[in-house]
Amino acid sequence: MKSGPGRWRGLVNNYELLIFDWDGTLVDSIGRIVESILVAATKCDLPRLDENSIKGIIGLGLPEAIAVLYPGETDRKLVEAFRRAYADHYLALESEPSALYPGVATALQHFRDQGHQLAVATGKGRRGLDRVLAGQGWSDFFDVTRCADETASKPDPLMIHEILEHCGVSPGRALMIGDSVFDLEMARRAGVDSVAVSYGAQPLEVLLSCSPRMAINHFSELGDWLCSAASPAEVVTYVG
User: What is the pLDDT of residues 7-44, one digit of tens each?
Assistant: First the structure.
């Protein structure tokens, strides 16, 4: 059963709705994404880029990511071949689903039990997200999910606007949690506070440039902070 807006009980910091990125925030899948991009590049005779460059586009929808990685490439057939090669390799790797980061399952259940509404905002496609949610037994766990192929890609705020409307929550009572500048910039444009996670795709110093409310090194620290009395103006970085 989903949490629903009626279960919220005046939580600390007034965050009724928690919005999560997927890859690199809830799920340890960054290595597989990098590998799949490199395999697709080889199959399409495109230059193999360095790992940091690839990590820098994680969070975007796949078409937008390809455009950033290969800005001069306009051949639609080649771009489509790259997309298929990436998807085929990633799906093969995901025959055994990527693991959740430590503490994620317990924390998310706790957030639901406390009355938070939960959402996912991801650069994954709908088919891919539905498949991994089913693999986790979470097909009906989140109140709402949004994917890049059914709305605007991050950092456009449309994804968050749609989630807020679905949940009936104002921007000031929502919190976006993500591991990329695209997550944090999307939140800023939507008027939503954000939390940066340091263990995902992008370095913490890059994420801090987006002025998140806080930064965490372990997922369990999110619950600690939500139960704290941190000042609204304070950015807290937990070190663990």
Answer: 333 344 579 999 999 999 999 999 999 999 999 999 99
User: Contact, 16 vs 173, CB < 8 A?
Assistant: yes
Find out whether 201 and 58 touch, Cβ atoms under 8 Å. yes
The predicted-structure confidence for 144-178, as pLDDT tens digits, reads as follows 999 999 999 999 999 999 999 999 999 999 999 99
* Structural domains in the chain, sorted by start: 5-28+101-237 (3.40.50.1000), 30-93 (1.10.150)
Alpha helices in the chain (DSSP H): 30-43, 51-55, 62-69, 76-93, 104-113, 126-136, 158-167, 181-190, 204-208, 220-226
Q: What is the pLDDT of residues 181-232, one digit of tens each?
A: 999 999 999 999 999 999 999 999 999 999 999 999 999 999 989 987 334 4
DSSP string, 36-102: HHHHHHHHTT-PPPPHHHHHTTBTB-HHHHHHHHSTT---HHHHHHHHHHHHHHHHHHTTSPPPBPT
For 125-161, letters b (16+ CB in 10 Å) and e give beebbeebbeeeebeebbbbbbbbeebbbbbbbebbb
Contacting residues for 72 by C-beta, under 8 A, at least 6 apart: none
Is the C-alpha dihedral spanning 86, 91, 97, 103 positive or negative?
A: positive
Distance CA 35, CA 30 (A): 9
